[in-house]
Specification:
Elements: H1 2-13, E1 18-21, H2 41-63, E2 66-70, H3 80-89, E3 96-100, H4 102-107, H5 112-118, E4 123-128, E5 130-133, E6 153-156, H6 165-174, E7 181-183, H7 192-206, H8 225-231
Parallel strand pairs: 1-2, 2-3, 3-4, 4-7
Antiparallel strand pairs: 5-6
Helix pairs in contact: 1-2, 2-3, 5-6
Length: about 240
Amino acid sequence: MAQMVKAMQASRNLGLHVMPTFSGALLWHTMYPWPQRPAGLVELGFQELAKRWLPLLNKAEEYGVDLAYEIHPGEDLHDGVTFERFLEATGNHPRVHILYDPSHFILQCLDYIGYLDCYKDHIRAFHVKDAEYHASPRSGVYGGYQGWKDRPGRFRTPGDGQVDFKRVFSTLTQNGFTSWAVLEWEDCIKDSVQGAREGADFIRSMLIDVPTRAFDDFAGGAQDVQTNYRILGLQP
């Protein structure tokens, strides 16, 4: 806990109002169980996870810092439903938010564009990381314990995978996201130096300058009731 509080203090001192983190995992090993989970186990797991986070969330409130949980397989918060469960378990704590990384959604076959609209009020941080998934007759989404090169799903340098970043950046911009687009590089094929160089250029090419006026403003003007009646072919 002390280390997390120090990170919050550092964030505040740097003028940063969002701090990425992981949720941790009490339940992940039961994610695909056989036999089935005992009744009440999931509810208890999220209750206990929230109990451990609430003191930190209250500290985050004190420091004015949002905690952005990366939605990540291996953590208890790994999709939309699990995020909602955690949010509810914390009493809808105002500092519970999301770090969005579409690469993890590609590997889970999740609608990563729809997610942006569904959770637009909670997305506070953004990892620009790419991934690809190619169905295989020999191995599935969990990879068969193989190395990354041989898995059907693997991470790639931004622009080399299947994430439609034009739609991601457009949707984030449309939804009012104003925080950082952070390059996270993981690629089993390409060297990290090349990946960093290409990734920085790729992000730069995706950034969107928000317009100061509508593109068709030239055709508009002040409201004129008489003109509007005339266009409709009516008399006031």
